[in-house]
Write a structure and sequence with these properties.
Order of helices and strands: HHHHHH
Oligomer: single chain
Distance between the termini: 7 Å
Mean pLDDT: 95
Number of strands: 0
Largest sheet: none
Radius of gyration: 15 Å
Low-confidence stretches: none
Amino acid sequence: MEIDKILTSNVVDVSSVKSFFGTDKDMLIQLINVYLLETTPRLKTLENNLNTLDFEEVRSVCHFLKSSFGLMGISCLEEIIAIEQLTKQHENENLIKEKLRNAIPICKESIVEYKSMLTKLEAL
């Protein structure tokens, strides 16, 4: 299977990944591994904040996720940016939690999608 066929998704926008790393299999594997390793524990942190919100913890996680979500084409980037801004200002806890409830499933889908791509790339 060709790399271009592996880097196809209805869940994430892989255009940036393709434009920066093209057909460099090793770099793609490394990039996806880093994304998965860095995002998975941060997603757990966001989930833990659905009950008791720690503004600074959520702000820090969202700040970190912004750049990787942009590169990896995760569709909840705007939600993450909004959450970061709201937590900076310690505003509207209910709105922050609502935005987290919207973003978390999208994050989970992206992790599943990139795990699938990684498995296929490693099999090449």
